[in-house]
Amino acid sequence: MEKEARGKPSDERAALRRSKPKPVFDDLEEWLQAQSPRISGKSPLAQAIRYALGRLPKARPYLDNGALSLDNNSAEQAMKPVAIGRKNWMFAGFEGGEKAMAIAFTLIETVKLNGKDP
Fold first, then answer.
1. Are residues 108 and 56 in the same domain?
2. Predicted pLDDT at 47
3. How many other C-beta atoms can be found within 10 angstroms of the C-beta atom of residue 59?
4. Do the Cβ atoms of 1 and 16 come closer than 8 Å?
5. Residue 25 near residue 59, CB atoms below 8 Å
6. Domain identity same for 14 and 36
7. CA torsion, ordered 58, 63, 68, 73, to nearest 10 deg
8. Pair 19, 30: CB distance under 8 Å
9. What are the DSSP calls for 88-105, one per residue?
């Protein structure tokens, strides 16, 4: 569904999310709540169910807000050049250089995310 929504305006993405994944979220939450009392409280499965039930309310805003993303792929892709080159930049030329480079890369990537050429 996210492939279908990608590139569309946020109001269309939100409408699409309410029509397709919302029922899946609702069914999953209902099923998890039904299974929770049937499983031993100390088992790994019970812990996983409690974890999921605790996270579902935090994931629900994604269904109503088309501007939100369910993953952080764009942030990871933005940081990829920094991760690839970090050994090359291990010694930034002066004491405190790593802090200066971190600030510079943060500014550069922020400018790129806002559609400008740094």
1. no
2. 94
3. 13
4. yes
5. yes
6. yes
7. 80
8. no
9. TTSS-SSTTHHHHHHHHH
Number of domains in the chain: 2
- Are residues 54 and 89 located together in one domain of the fold? no
Judgement on whether residues 94 and 51 belong to the same structural domain of the protein: no
Q: Which domain holds residue 83?
A: 73-113
d(CA 105, CA 117): 13
78, 69 contact by CB (below 8 A) = no
pLDDT tens digits, 84-115: 766 666 656 666 777 777 788 888 888 988 89
Same domain as 43, residue 9 = yes
| Tokens found for residue 22 | 């919302």
Predicted pLDDT of residue 46: 93
Same domain, 55 and 15: yes
What b/e readout covers 8-25, taking b as 16+ CB neighbours within 10 angstroms? Answer: eeeeebbebbeeebeeee
Strands (E), the chain: none
Query: Is 58 inside a domain boundary?
Result: yes
Which regions of the chain are under pLDDT 50?
Answer: none
Diameter over CA atoms, the chain: 61
